[in-house]
Design a protein that fits this description.
This protein has 204 residues and is of the alpha/beta class. It has a single domain (17-202), classed as 3-Layer(aba) Sandwich (Rossmann fold), CATH 3.40.50.1110. It is built from eight helices and six strands.
């Protein structure tokens, strides 16, 4: 049965990362390549490490990683309702926005998309954690406004906030793959710690 569930999740573009298929509650990770495990083994990415930590700490949650490499907030907004209907999560971790920033997309639209994703999750009785992102300083004033957008959405939607997914990683080139965009497997525990600070208070 567990192998069937894993296969079904893969067909649907999501991966079940929990050590048990019988967990009472679900955490949905809704992100981009930084959460999908681009360039590394999927079981080494921070959502898989999250599933392990939950088991170690005796939290009765499964983890569904519905992250897609290259995803923007607009793409996430288009697919959130289907993901919520499919997985019925109690917690949604929204880790989108990096691709919007790298492409220089309008920040007003990004904020609106993030707010819509959070609002859809809340309407489905899920708690929401917004995961902040940052851009290199050469993006100028856009970078500052981009960084502020995540906190603005969290405040607007009364959601939890993890300030910066790559905190403690972004400044260390050794923790990135050759593309200088995606963290290595060695960096994933730090990403998990950054998310955990915002997530832990939501767990019951």
């Amino acid at each position: 049965m567990l192998r069937f569930l894993k296969f079904a999740c893969l067909l649907l573009g999501s991966t079940l990362l929990a050590p048990s298929a019988h967990a009472a509650k679900t955490i949905l990770v809704f992100g981009d390549s930084l959460s999908a495990g681009y360039g590394i083994r999927r079981d080494a990415a921070w959502p898989a490490l999250l599933a392990q930590r939950l088991q170690e700490k005796k939290f009765d949650y499964s983890v569904i990683n519905a992250s897609i490499s290259g995803e923007t907030t607009a793409g996430g907004r288009a697919r959130i309702d289907a993901a919520l209907a499919r997985h019925a999560p109690q917690v949604v971790i929204v880790a989108l926005g990096a691709n919007d920033g790298l492409r220089g997309l309008p920040l007003a639209a990004m904020r609106d998309n993030l707010a819509a994703i959070a609002g859809s999750a809340q309407k489905n009785k899920a708690q929401v954690l917004i995961v902040g992102q940052r851009l290199p300083p050469n993006y100028g004033t856009y970078a500052a406004q981009f960084a502020d957008a995540f906190g603005d959405v969290a405040k607007l939607k009364k959601a939890a906030l993890a300030d910066f997914l790559l905190d403690g990683v972004a400044s260390d080139p050794a923790l990135f793959q050759p593309d200088n965009l995606h963290p290595t497997a060695e960096a994933q525990p730090r990403l998990l710690d950054n998310v955990w600070r915002g997530l832990a208070p939501l767990l019951k």
